[in-house]
Write a structure and sequence with these properties.
Length: 569
RNA sequence: UGCCCGGUCGUUCAAUUGGUAGGACAACGGAUUUUGGGUCCGUUUAUCGAGGUUCGAAUCCUCGCCGGGCAGCCA
């Protein structure tokens, strides 16, 4: 029996793509089967935008009991490399998707593609064009003028067959000839004006080596690859909408498996750019350290930053699928991240901007262990011991000599709680000659051990702290949004998009003090530094000194009250 | 002045296919709290415009307006 809430929960409406797929399944189109594909080009690293496509491609397949093929569109040997194939596989696995034994390559289909091209030629549906690239462009027409026929358009089938064979044999120079589909030069859609199917490129391919010197265009390879793999639903981004009539033309003329392409809008995110060209520029000009710089929107960058695969998938699931242009608030991504990290990240104390505190009534040379909860959101995570002693570090921002009304952390004469430890009261502020605060003298109340006062008195703040003698020294890298504006590519005349970079997207703090339990932290591990944010251990932590990357801050109401501009708005 | 696609809270996605415009994020208030975290409760804000069809329109029709894509031998 279903209750009202059950049906409410299960009634989450399907997006337009899942609706279409569900309908096809119900109507028995493709015999009720669902096969999708994720088709990256191995010429760069995957980024968060690709994750959206993966969530869709793999997600739809799984939800409808089908499969999703991983297919590399490796039709351009001059841009593609094996290295990218490997990194792409790593990133997909990291995100948690599985292509089983269906790792496919468009290059696997080069022979079949060649045969199909011959078949089109034989049917007088394709021809070899001797025009130069410039001439072809010239004759293609414009958005408002129709194209003109190539002078070679009416070659005989025999001549076309002969030229095409000789193209393949390597008789002709790069760019001297192409094979074109004979669709018609007067279509209002310029993509349909006798599209190029093959071009001559004397270059070795990362998989087929020097076997070929003619390579299929993406538009000629992609739909046919779908057909060969019997992909039922080929989910593409909006810019391929105008290509669909061409794909359908090939399917019809060849009489092959009729995959159905459905287009959706890619997801843009505020304060970020995902174009490979721009990302490469950031690296080449030295703004970023590489493709896995923790500020990169690449999956390897996000991974190094400390993002979890689950958070990324949750994000795209929440955002949904539609066809309109969009620019998703990066705060949504951060919200998904915090939501997950909050549940799984062990809590720990670390002081990143230290201010020394001396507990005057605590005996010198002594220390004790206090019990701390590892994760209040998950009591099964247990507890740990933290060392307390006479000399401590607290966060410099947690003390104000002359506090405003809403500041309820430590101040002269004020009592606060040290988390899991004691109440302390500030008795004296020690300054250097320059007037800088260098140390606080405090007293503690031994009765408040653990953090509660037997007499029931309250404090307004709880501070994190680290015992000086027991601290682990670490480097902490504070990352923030890469760009200072929502739309980095939106620039006024004379401005450069690089001017939109956030100049404080990285602050390195070489000497931070962390509780001793962090001594054994391993690269990739994630923690919540209480009251500061989520941090993960960077692979640079090799040399004995741990390095932590700030993944994301905690939500911070005080920053807002204090007029902090931490979110750039 | 070509063709294709799209326009719903600040953002993003919904609306049982013509029947009270809803969720999430953001923002703002309150409660609780040994993280100014978290949790809970509440509040504010939207159908691009003009006509038409209809008892009734975000949804259908017409005409506008605005945004995006397309003139690589890139994908």
């Amino acid at each position: 029996m279903t209750t009202a809430t059950d049906s409410l929960n299960s009634d989450r409406s399907l997006d337009f793509i899942r609706t279409a797929v569900a309908e096809d399944v119900r109507n028995g189109r493709y015999g009720g089967k669902v096969v999708t594909r994720f088709p990256p080009e191995p010429n760069g690293y995957l980024h968060i935008g690709h994750a959206k496509a993966m969530c869709l491609d793999f997600g739809v397949a799984e939800e409808f009991g089908g499969v999703c093929n991983l297919r590399f569109d490796d039709t351009n040997p001059v841009r593609e490399e094996q290295e990218y194939v490997d990194s792409i596989c790593d990133d997909i696995r990291w995100l948690g998707f599985d292509w089983g034994d269906r790792k496919c390559f468009a290059s696997d289909y080069f022979h079949q593609l060649y045969e199909w091209a011959v078949k089109l030629i034989e049917g007088d549906l394709a021809y070899v064009d001797d025009q130069s690239a410039d001439e072809i462009r010239e004759n293609r027409g414009t958005l408002t003028e129709l194209g003109r026929d190539s002078p070679h358009r009416d070659r005989s089938v025999e001549e076309n067959l002969d030229f095409f064979r000789r193209m393949k044999e390597g008789e002709f120079a790069d760019g001297s000839r192409v094979l074109r589909a004979k669709i018609g030069m007067s279509s209002p859609n310029p993509l349909m004006r006798d599209p190029v199917m093959y071009r001559i490129i004397h270059a070795s391919h990362h998989r087929t080596g020097d076997e070929w010197c003619i390579y299929p265009m993406y538009d000629w390879a992609h739909g046919q690859s779908d057909a060969l793999e019997e992909v039922t639903h080929s989910l593409a981004s909006l810019e391929y909408e105008n290509h669909r009539p061409m794909y359908d033309w090939y399917i019809k003329k060849l009489g092959i498996f009729p995959s159905r392409q459905i287009e959706f809008a890619r997801g843009n995110i505020t304060y970020t750019v995902t174009s490979k060209r721009r990302l490469r520029e950031l690296i080449e000009k030295g703004y970023l350290s590489g493709w896995d710089d923790p500020r990169m929107p690449t999956l390897c960058g996000l991974r190094r930053r400390g993002y979890t695969p689950k958070a990324i998938r949750q994000f795209w699931e929440d955002v949904g699928i539609a066809k309109r242009e969009n620019n998703i608030d990066i705060a949504k991504l951060e919200s998904c991240l915090r939501d997950q990290l909050n549940k799984v990240a062990p809590r720990v104390m670390g002081v990143i901007n230290p201010l020394k505190v001396v507990i005057e009534n605590y005996p010198e040379g002594e220390s004790e262990e206090l019990e701390a909860i590892n994760n209040p959101e998950d009591l099964a995570a247990g507890t740990r011991q933290v060392a307390f002693s006479r000399e401590l570090f607290i966060e410099r921002e947690d003390f104000m000599e002359d506090p405003p009304k809403k500041f309820f952390r430590l101040a002269p004469g004020r009592e606060v709680r040290l988390r899991y430890a004691f109440f302390i009261t500030c008795t004296e502020v020690v300054k250097d000659e320059a007037g800088q605060i260098v140390e606080l003298r405090c007293t503690y109340d031994p009765e408040t051990r653990g953090g509660d006062a037997p007499d029931g008195r309250k404090v307004k703040a709880t501070l994190h702290w680290v015992s000086v003698a027991h601290a682990v020294v670490a480097e902490v890298r504070l990352y923030d949004r890469l760009f200072a504006v929502e739309n980095p590519l939106e620039i006024a005349d004379g401005e450069d998009w690089l001017d939109n970079l956030n100049s404080t997207s990285l602050k390195v703090l070489p000497n931070c003090y962390l509780e001793s339990s962090l001594e054994e932290a391993r690269p990739g591990q994630r923690f919540q530094f209480e009251r500061l944010g989520y941090f993960s251990v960077d692979p640079d932590s090799a040399g004995g000194k741990p390095v932590f990357n700030r993944t994301v801050t905690l939500r911070d109401q005080w920053a807002r009250i204090a007029g902090g501009k931490q979110d750039g708005k």
